[in-house]
Design brief:
2 domains; four-stranded antiparallel β-sheet
Length: about 160
């Protein structure tokens, strides 16, 4: 996996959570600066621009983070692993925009996410994300770079 993805693997031994957090580890100072300002303020836009320039300088570079997009070579830097199939109960793949219920907002835990996916499906999970984002339009309660992030959730049992 690459980029802003989290994989949840519910196994007979518990839930394994695998996240590619390399982009989050880049330019922490610039990220923290951008988080100081409400969404829509000129200061936030300027800080985000500095952060994005710094991030892009390390994208698909050794020591940075890797995104496939139009660069197939990036796949050589993917996080890989394996779990015996007979140990797997269910799996979910989430972009950071869907994983934020746990990773950013802290309103669910990973078993809760799997339960929502089982009981109500990805649409319900993403609806919960959208409701929380809408309740924080300034992006100050939960510091983030944009009011709403792309959110994708895939579930398999």
């Amino acid at each position: 996996m690459l980029g802003d993805v989290t994989v949840l693997i519910d196994t007979v031994d518990g839930i394994k959570v695998i996240t590619d957090d390399r982009v989050d580890k880049t330019f922490r100072t610039e990220r923290d600066e951008a988080d100081r300002y409400p969404f829509g303020y000129a200061e936030k836009q300027a800080a985000l621009l500095r952060m994005k320039h710094a991030e892009l300088a390390t994208r698909n570079q050794p020591g940075g983070y890797w995104v496939a997009a139009a660069e197939p070579f990036a796949a050589r830097h993917a996080i890989t692993g394996e779990v015996p199939l007979d140990n797997v109960r269910r799996v979910a793949v989430l972009t950071d925009g869907a994983a934020c219920l746990v990773a950013l907002f802290g309103l669910l835990d990973w078993p809760d996410v799997l339960d929502v996916l089982v009981e109500d499906g990805p649409t319900k999970l993403i609806s919960q994300v959208r409701a929380i984002e809408a309740a924080d339009p300034s992006c100050m309660r939960w510091a983030r770079n944009k009011r709403s992030d792309d959110a994708t959730a895939v579930y398999a049992a």
